[in-house]
Amino acid sequence: MSENSEVPGTPSATPSGATAPGPQPESLRFFGTTWVDHDGGYGLRRAGATIGSLAAAVAACFILRFAYQGLEIAEVGSLVGMLVVLMFAICSAIAFRKTWEGFTRRPADPAQDDRLRGLKSIGFIGSLLAYFFRSFQEAPGEKLRRTEYETALAQYAKRRSSRTGNPAARKNAKAKRSGRR
After folding, report:
1. Which pTM value belongs to this model?
2. Would the N or C end of the chain have less CB density within 10 A of its end CB?
3. C-alpha 71: how far from its chain's center?
4. Which residues make Cβ contacts (< 8 Å) with residue 102, sequence separation at least 6?
5. How far is C-alpha 81 from the chain's CA centre?
6. Which of 160, 1, 23 is nearest to 10 (CA)?
7. Tell me: the pLDDT tens digits for 121-147?
């Protein structure tokens, strides 16, 4: 991030309609920027995210059960059925771990994370469960975004406090001083 760049996200508007100076909080899925001050229905959104992710995980388990019953009806054999269940279990465990890690830190290698997208799609139940468990503690990803936002605010305040006066006026004053000699 360059020194003058701002944290991406939804900008807050000033009364004149302009964007407020300084870094802006990054928006979270389902929460927007309500995580900053825990306002705007934050508690209800967290409860909704908790209930919604659990309901989606349960619905996904029913869908997978119907798919497994389809394999039984097709009489593909117990080995294929066992491999399918094992594949979904392993993919769900990996998806849970990667999703949980994504709530606390940015991926070191985004390309590696992109390569795991298909595996995480197969193990979507693990991702839903990670979202469910994390929403008990906080909005999923809030801790990471809050740390980044507070760091950006501190850096911005430090940059602003180190600046004194108008830089253009300093240039003019130096030119006037050099001309006096």
Report:
1. 0.73
2. C
3. 37
4. 113, 141
5. 35
6. 23
7. 899 999 999 999 999 888 898 899 989
